[in-house]
């Protein structure tokens, strides 16, 4: 019962495949999170990339814009995921969702998870959009 | 401080607009839920239709397939929403999401909300798909 | 670092005080839950009564009807608490909340925790009210 | 499948009715939240007011103090709703709940949603009460 | 951006390593869940085994009894995870946690996530223990 | 229906027993939280100590290291419990869990509650470990 060596050629190949997916969709925020895990949980960073992006995100049944819509719904309704929402709002823009579509996902969330979750998610979006001069959203 | 009369012409017009949206997307499960509210919370049934569908769902910034992806992410990750998941898996099929796309939304959920939420949502999908002879999903 | 003996005179006095509170407000469902803990977690049953009712519920800053409103909001929004909701809907009736007030608490929940949580809570209320011939709610 | 025009006379009438309710109960915090939505999700601000306050909050089955008790229970137990808790603690004071009743709602929450949710909600209350010179609570 | 072929030699090796871990700890319930995914989401079953058990569970920093304690805390507090709790209560017994330790994990949960989550988890444990003639727990 | 006087000899004895448990395990953070409750909810501080530590934590069925593993799983998966996580990461170190075991609990959480909850919990651990010169974790 030993885990794989994350530095083995097989795991490094998995990691590279995940990183390719991540680089293809990423808005620039995720790598910083990955870096912050380096001195405390490098295996988690490995698995986020190798499993989260290489194994899951790469699957063709949903295209990136569709995956981001699912992700925005999940993160908004879980609550307490502001740092992850920020990363995924940037990623959503990067894969081609418009600011209006991102906002709409959160307005839609109001009906299923209530106004507070929706309003909190929109507050994160507002910060991201302001940094990128994307306000007002029309 | 009085609420609107849900039987007024204005509210009935709002309700009819919501019902039109609901009928356009519905897979057949929602009306049963609405009916079950009739003798205990008719105002809630009114607001689900008038607000949830007439005001929110009808907004053009996301098309129905996109809205369903957000909804599947929300309901799967909230947990304890099996009846609502059943309704929305049917609706998702009805608006044109494929069984593979619905399943993929839940597989994707595993990375953000964990395996249990994903597995529970897929168990609901399996029941819906079995009833409609849509198994196996390929 | 040893816990109190739940059979000591002091703990039995705490338990009796809690049981008095529970009996004063209870709609008949809680004791069954307590009984079911007897052969697996009697200490938990003791603490639910001694702490939950004797220490917390007995506090005069909120009267029972007010406490039940808080409780209904909590249980509806947590989700997955159908057995506890059933107990507390009965308790709410017993302390004098009307069926309309109970239902209204759940309709109100829709705005803050979304329609699914509200609808699920109302489904539990409907079952309790049907058993007691309290439908329709007007 | 088009949503209502939020600037139509009918929607403006709904909005005004909601705003009247909001002004009647508001402690001064909500409008700031509404304003912050103006350049990113004005429709959500409209719906919070028109639906949340005009359609739901205005219903007479619960009076404002009762509604606030339900709301405090919901927001405390959901977690991650600190900004909304702040608004609703102010509103609770404004409609006549005492600081002791507000605190008691959160102490009560400890039994149903655990100590962390209760302690976090009380930390928000402490900040609001300190700003208004309402400490200590007795 | 293509996912790994779960039937490739590399992925089959990952799967076998995970299955070895699963078989070493499993109480007999998990394979049934895995089987149920076969005709709807075989990739998810693959990832639960290859990632969940092969990559995560196999890590030596926590031994199986310790991992089960973390898992019991997570599943009890998430709520709505009754099927997964059942599997993991069986696994916990299998790796050597006593019924009293399992129950104690849930009693402990009461303080951090409230009585309802604790009581619901204990109800699942009671069912598992009854099937195995492990009641009463002393 | 009156609560116990928390200043009575019986309650003071319960409090002292809880404080003894708390002092035996505490990493130095909890008392600050308790102090902050003094002018707003002293009864809650009393119950956290008397019930949470005196009644629950003191129970011998799990030793402190085991209880902390359960607690870390609960707090990480609930989300929005960063202040409590900080206290309990310190307590975990104090009772003898290693930084690697604490981190591993959170990596394990990724499989059951998703990457965001795991990453957020590790961010809190990183802050605690940095303050105590415990980085990198190996």
TrEMBL record, chains A, B, C, D, E, F:
InterPro entries xrefs = 4CMD/NDH-1_regulator, AhpD-like, CMD-like
Pfam families the record matches: CMD
Molecular function terms in GO for this entry?
4-carboxymuconolactone decarboxylase activity
Superkingdom of the source? Bacteria
Q: What is its EC number?
A: 4.1.1.44
Which SUPFAM superfamilies does the UniProt record give?
A: AhpD-like
Q: What class of enzyme is it?
A: lyase
Keywords carried by this UniProt record: Lyase
Q: Which Gene3D superfamilies match?
A: AhpD-like (1.20.1290.10)
Per UniProt, residues of the Carboxymuconolactone decarboxylase-like domain are 42-126
Q: Provide the protein name.
A: 4-carboxymuconolactone decarboxylase
Protein species of origin: Kribbella aluminosa
Upper classification of the organism: Bacteria, Bacillati, Actinomycetota, Actinomycetes, Propionibacteriales
């Amino acid at each position: 019962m030993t885990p794989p060596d994350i530095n083995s050629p097989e795991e490094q190949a998995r990691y590279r495949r995940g990183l390719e997916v991540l680089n293809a969709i990423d808005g620039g925020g995720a790598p910083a999170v990955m870096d912050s895990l380096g001195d405390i949980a490098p295996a988690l960073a490995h698995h986020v990339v190798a499993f989260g992006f290489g194994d899951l995100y790469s699957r063709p049944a949903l295209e990136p814009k569709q995956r981001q819509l699912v992700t925005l719904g999940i993160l908004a309704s879980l609550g307490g995921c502001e740092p992850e929402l920020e990363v995924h709002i940037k990623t959503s823009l990067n894969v081609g969702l418009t600011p209006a579509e991102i906002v709409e996902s959160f307005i839609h969330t109001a009906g299923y998870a209530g106004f507070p979750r929706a309003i909190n998610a929109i507050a994160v979006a507002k910060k991201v959009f302001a940094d990128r001069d994307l306000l007002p959203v029309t």
